Amino acid sequence: MGYCSATDVSIRLGLDSGQRDRAATRISSAIQRAGINIDQEFRDYGRPSPSSFTAASSLNGAISAGATSITLTDSSSFSAAGNGNINSDSFIWTGNAANVLSGVTGIDFAHASGESVEEGEMAAVIREICADLAGAIYLEDDTAFHTSGSEALRSNVLRQRGTGELKRLAHLGSVD
Fold it and tell me: Domain of 137?
């Protein structure tokens, strides 16, 4: 599992679903390369890669805004109580049993079955960084043979933002 999805990168790039589908292979490659950059930055600071301490699962059934329980496909890697996010919609829970997070508060939006659920705020921040870096890599690859245009500038902004946030996060080791 990568740190971000093709949808995350497509949003950064302003691609519609048809464009995303046509560029799926290139976006997937950019996501893999961004993941390598993220892991290496953490190793440079003597920290384990973020994937080693980010619990993730997916919704096993849709939920609505204000939900007080969340059924996951597998909650075994989640803490008994903690905080998490569903596509950057942050929430907290007080219980975890039989693949159900209970005592949930803070769900602001409805979510469809199958959406990714991640423990902690680190996963949401890493997803944003990954999307920035993968978007930059995609644009850099796309414009490598062009001599004019604004894509190089947009790519540079994404790369600087992603790299700056990644260095800060790797150095601190936490978003808290």
Answer: 6-51+123-172
CA-based torsion, 158, 162, 11, 135: positive or negative: positive
Min mean pLDDT across 48-62, 76-90, 126-140, 162-176 is at 162-176
Q: How many domains does the chain have?
A: 2
| The two structure tokens encoding residue 84 | 């998490």
pLDDT, one tens digit per residue, over 26-44 is 999 999 999 999 999 999 9
Answer whether 166's CB lies under 8 Å from 134's CB.
no
List C-alpha distances in Å: 31 to 1, 95, 111, 114, 158: 10, 33, 24, 20, 14
113 located within any domain: yes
- Residue 12 shares a structural domain with residue 36: yes
